[in-house]
UniProtKB/TrEMBL annotation:
Source organism phylogeny: Bacteria, Bacillati, Actinomycetota, Actinomycetes, Propionibacteriales
Keyword terms, alphabetized: Copper, Membrane, Metal-binding, Oxidoreductase, Transmembrane, Transmembrane helix
Protein's name in the database: Multicopper oxidase domain-containing protein
Species this chain originates from: Cutibacterium porci
Chain spans, region Disordered: 419-458
Record-annotated Plastocyanin-like domain positions: 656-754
Positions of the EfeO-type cupredoxin-like domain: 502-565
Cited PANTHER family: FI03373P-RELATED, MULTI-COPPER OXIDASE
Biased composition (Polar residues): 432-448
Highest taxon in the source lineage: Bacteria
Length: 904
């Protein structure tokens, strides 16, 4: 035990000085959180930033500070100055890591976020080992299980941080949802949940100023094992997409929490909460259980249709109601204890810290209930404001506590100072530094714990405060309801002097066959409109959005949702936001009875954004891997089984230009298949996208009814056919609108060489396509541009000008064959290689020109309409850099260009 003995004479002022230094980042994060909350509408990824400023910035930093505090109190251990300096260094490194991760996410620099996550994970690993070291070198005692809770929790966060770093690369469904649920399991259930439960074992009885249950420590050890198993089961279930297993894991986690919760409830039954820390911590535990039960229900009932957006539904309110409220409640109790000074001073600082506790707690939690349960926009906003105001009262309460405590400490001669070393080490100094007064902050950690004087207000005052808070919440709800009833959702302008009627018109519609049924509804002027929508399309995903912003989630086949449109004061429309569905006719026309003749309809016009200005002289991004244009070898055997997986992916299509692509197997432009005449193709399609998709192989001759049918997310189909004829055949998604799906990347080529095709020294393939970009990176294709036929890029093999920077290779005298396909969706190709001539041209299944033809003829271009293909052959006579282009030069200037490097 040399470490403990060496630290036993450390002056108390060193511990207080450490606590001040270590806690400074928490104050900084709270201030930054307030600023970001105000300016969040102008910050990219603001929801992500706010959540992680709370969970990482405020909560994780506080956990590291207070976890060390409780560890020392439980183990009866004081550390050396060097140990304390290392603790402060860890917290500063944590702060740096969080800042770097936040900058990377907001600026969309994934690798910067990876660096930040690595720093955060490494710091927490160091912290876990430091706590374990202290436990191993401490004398045996009760409640060491709490410290093991901290060690286990800190060990889980690096895993969660790793998944968070992976998610910065924008994984597509289903991995986006799987990673998110696992990330929350490791971080919220694991890191936060274990830390909270471990702390409450000793802190909750102390806050209530009552004795602990005899079995509390033993139950804590059992709960730790159960909760760890639950986190592992939940994580495995989520990663594997076994949502029933993930639901079982969360249920087990609830059971682990309840093992400890039984003792905590028994303590509260003996002495109920009577001040602000007790009220808020009890409410926070309720929010934790509500969230866990909701999560079990969501995982168990949604199953394979679960999307990341479903998990986000309660994320922010739960983080505020559970995590932030619990943290503020605990700090409200602990800070006066840490300031210390004896019962008289603690009584005075507690009185300031806990003032109006029942009122503050009621306003906070009533506001949270309005935030979560209210239907109207204004009611939700008022509830959110109430919750924030209720929690923000912690700041002036802290300031009042400090203003009260510091003069009293100075008057008593206990002002924070650097005591002379000799005095601190004197056995009869009278300062009793070997038993600091703030040990009383944790129940059962000392043999002679100081019982702080009662500071709670009388029961009548608590009742009055709670009643006042409840009255405030009811008044706020009434005001919010009135505002929701008198103004359209999202602030849409009113027409004339239409007054709200107070009535609600409810309409049920269905989505099927690229139509809403009915597609026209009539509403009395001033009525609130509520639309219930059911997706009856057997395969397609649909949704419904209105011009004022009211919208439903994306609905899988058979799913139902309700959209509260708000008070209708003018004609308006709703439409499906799935790419291309509006242009296919999915529009709901809302007409209004009783309006003035001058009322203008509220329409959402779908206008094409201007052409993007893209610098094609720049090289592709560092993360882009050019597609190898060398023709792959013929598939082995005569029967070929392959799987194509439809999934969404953000893909680069030009320098500094990305698109939310629809892909087969995760890349813009699907794999090229090289097989023989007569080969059997057995293709298995799996839809892991967020919308419906299908397959159409031009190389097959089969009825489209079954194999080309559209399948919904999560569904699969088999597509079997025989390659009867030679050519380069297009395959693509045939789900309407096909133009949008092809422009978004869902196309590929099947190359079937003709009989007795002579050999060539080199064979390449070039598949031309065009795309239509939105105004911003990472967005879906612009269907208005598709309709206007105004492409932004024309590309070979899925990226503009990639072969300008990664030229194809050949040698003088070699015969070079290039297979060319115009995939469209609308543009053809006039393929030309500058500096040479084609002596062989094969187009659409037949030779137009053969080498050694009696006419001595040659060809300068292979002209292809959309969906046509063939190949050309040439022999380069001199070394040099030869340019291949679409000789429709406007297409070449949009990116249909590359080089062939010919060496001697």
């Amino acid at each position: 035990m040399p470490e403990i003995m060496r630290a036993s004479h450390t002056p108390d002022t060193n511990r207080r000085s450490w606590h001040r230094k270590a806690s400074r980042p928490v104050s900084g994060w709270l201030a930054a959180l307030l600023i970001v909350a105000i300016v969040s509408p102008w910050i990219p990824q603001s929801r992500w930033l706010l959540i992680h400023m709370v969970t990482l910035g405020v909560a994780t930093t506080s956990i590291m500070v207070w976890g060390q505090y409780f560890t020392e109190a439980i183990l009866h251990n004081n550390l050396t100055d060097a140990d304390r300096r290392r603790q402060v260094l860890r917290i500063r490194l944590l702060t740096v890591g969080i800042v770097v991760a936040c900058v990377g996410m907001v600026a969309t620099w994934p690798w910067v976020s990876v660096v930040g996550a690595a720093v955060v994970g490494s710091t927490l690993t160091w912290y876990a080992f430091a706590l374990a070291h202290q436990v191993r070198h401490a004398l045996p005692g009760r409640f060491t299980s709490t410290v093991w809770f901290y060690c286990a929790a800190a060990s889980l966060l690096p895993l969660g941080a790793t998944l968070g770093a992976i998610m910065t690369f924008s994984p597509t469904e289903p991995w986006r949802t799987r990673l998110l649920v696992t990330h929350q399991a490791l971080n919220l259930l694991g890191f936060v949940g274990l830390t909270v439960v471990g702390t409450l074992i000793t802190l909750w009885p102390t806050v209530l100023r009552t004795k602990m249950q005899p079995s509390q420590d033993r139950h804590g050890r059992v709960a730790l094992g159960v909760m760890l198993i639950a986190v592992v089961v939940t994580s495995i279930g989520a990663l594997c997409g076994l949502w029933w297993l993930a639901a079982l894991g969360v249920t087990t986690h609830i059971a682990g929490v309840c093992i400890v919760l039984g003792d905590l409830v028994a303590c509260a039954a003996r002495k109920p909460p009577r001040d602000f820390p007790g009220f808020t911590m009890a409410a926070a535990m309720c929010w934790m259980l509500v969230w866990l039960v909701w999560l079990v229900w969501k995982l168990a009932t949604t199953g394979t249709r679960l999307l990341a957006d479903d998990i986000f539904t309660l994320s922010v309110p739960v983080i505020v109601g559970f995590l932030l409220q619990l943290l503020i409640g605990a700090m409200s109790y602990l800070m006066p204890m840490v300031m210390g000074g004896g019962p008289k001073i603690v009584r005075a600082t507690n009185a300031k810290m806990h003032a109006y506790g029942a009122l503050r707690a009621t306003i906070t939690n009533a506001g949270l209930l309005l935030w979560v349960l209210a239907v109207g926009m204004w009611t939700r906003r008022i509830g959110m404001a109430m919750a924030i105001v209720g929690l923000a009262t912690f700041l002036p309460a802290t300031a009042a506590m400090v203003r009260t405590g510091i003069p009293m400490l100075k008057e008593k001669g206990m002002a924070i100072r650097q005591a002379p070393p000799m005095k601190a080490e004197a056995p009869d100094s009278g300062e009793k530094t070997t038993q600091p007064p703030d040990r009383s902050a944790v129940a059962g950690t000392t043999e002679n714990a100081v019982e702080p004087a009662a500071t709670t207000p009388p029961d009548r005052r608590s009742f009055v405060g709670a009643f006042a808070g409840l009255a405030t919440a009811l008044t706020a709800a009434a005001v919010g309801h009135r505002l929701d009833a008198s103004a359209p959702t999202d602030g849409s302008p009113t027409a004339g002097n239409v007054a709200p009627t107070g009535h609600t018109t409810r309409v049920a519609i269905t989505a099927e066959g690229m139509k809403y049924h009915p597609n026209t509804i009539t509403v009395p002027a001033g009525d609130r409109l509520v639309v219930g929508i059911t997706n009856k399309d057997p395969n397609q995903v649909h949704d419904l959005q209105f011009a004022n912003g009211a919208h439903s989630p994306r609905l899988a086949p058979g799913a139902h949702a309700t959209v509260n449109v708000g008070v209708v004061t003018r004609p308006t429309e709703g439409w499906c936001t799935i790419v291309g569905h509006k242009s296919m006719g999915m529009v709901l026309d809302v007409r209004v009875n009783g309006l003035p003749a001058t009322s203008d309809p509220d329409r959402h016009t779908e206008t094409a954004s201007p052409r993007r200005k893209i610098d094609l002289t720049k090289a592709p991004g560092g993360e882009f891997t050019p597609r190898d244009a060398v023709l792959p070898p013929l598939l082995a055997g005569r029967a070929h089984t392959m799987t194509l997986t439809a999934e969404d992916a953000v893909q680069e299509v030009a320098p500094q230009t990305t698109i939310n692509a629809m892909t087969y197997n995760g890349r813009y432009m699907a794999p090229v298949i090289h097989a023989r005449i007569g080969d059997q193709m057995r293709v298995h399609l799996v839809n892991k996208s967020t919308m419906a998709h299908s397959l159409d192989f031009h190389a097959g001759t089969v009825s489209p009814d079954e194999v080309m049918r559209t399948i919904a997310p999560g569904q699969e189909l088999d597509y079997n056919f025989t390659l009867h004829r030679a050519g380069i055949w297009l395959y693509h998604c045939s789900t309407a609108p096909m133009s949008a799906h092809i422009a978004a990347g869902m196309f590929g080529a099947v190359i079937v060489p003709p009989h007795d095709l002579p050999s060539a020294d080199r064979q390449f393939y070039l598949v031309q396509s065009e795309t239509y970009l939105s105004e911003y990176n990472g967005a879906e294709v612009d269907t208005a541009k598709i309709a206007n036929e105004t492409p932004d890029l024309t590309m070979f093999n899925g990226h503009a000008n990639q072969y300008v920077f990664e030229p194809l290779k050949a040698k003088v005298g070699e015969r070079v064959r290039i297979w060319v396909l115009a995939a469209g969706p609308s543009r053809g190709c006039s393929f030309h290689v500058v500096g040479t001539q084609f002596d062989t041209v094969f187009k659409e299944g037949t030779y137009i020109l053969k080498r050694g033809n009696p006419e001595g003829g040659g060809s300068q271009a292979l002209d292809l309409a959309s969906a046509q293909g063939g190949f050309v052959e040439m022999v380069f006579e001199e070394p040099g850099r030869y340019t291949f282009v679409n000789h429709s030069f406007v297409e070449m200037e949009r990116g249909a260009k590359g080089f062939i490097e010919v060496t001697a």
